[in-house]
Amino acid sequence: MTQSERDGSQTWTSPNPEHAGDAEADLQASLADLARLVAGAYGLKELLARVATYAARAIPGADGAGVTLLRPGRSDNRVEALAASAAFVEQIDAIQYDVVNEGPCITAALERRTVRSGSLAGEKMWPRFGPRVGRLGVHSVLSLPLLLPDQLVGAINVYAHAKDVFDDHAAEIGELFAAPAAVAIHNAQALAEALTLATQLQSALSSRPVIDQAVGIIRARSGITTDDAFARLRAISQAENIKLNVVAQQVVYEAVRRARARHSDS
User: Fold this and answer.
1) How many beta carbons lie within 10 A of that of residue 175, not counting itself?
2) pTM here?
3) 246: domain range?
């Protein structure tokens, strides 16, 4: 029985007590590493790779794991970023998203539930994905949605080469790991977006003086208003598919060149 089937309980019991200690130690170590992740210390891609590595260590039987980050506000398979703990996982992700557009991560994301298979080659849920992955010698998968109360962040995919590797116990551990992982990834994503916005704003502020100069030059030449001069700059930018500040720089450069030419002739 998985965590979701037990109404959110955060405890689990191993069907094999002989290995319970090792499994719990791996889970606790991975959760501790996850808690120590400081989003500002890593880029988003590196943070996702670390989460994938921790997931592969935490979940019993895993040979590799991948993390898929979905675009904000979407519940389909529109992928924003990928990371993997092993090269074979990257190959599987390429099949899932770029070749067949079906697979465990897509199902977990769309249905917002844990999914698993112990025999991918014959898996009827993913008739195009499963046989391709089976031919790579990968037969077991456990996919866990990364969920916040009001948002789907992405999914964790855990793979094993052997058949029937991930049982209820592995799913419980995966769900225990996925909950804080969703928070860490969401925070990192929010920070990355904030840094991007700050860079864009800084670029806009640094571009403003040259844009103002170009507007002034156009006004002086044409006798039009400030709004009309700016609209002319923007029209050139859109028509030639060139950034507005680049168009403004060209206008200023041309004005300076002409002024120097007149000065040389006088």
Assistant:
1) 23
2) 0.68
3) 204-265
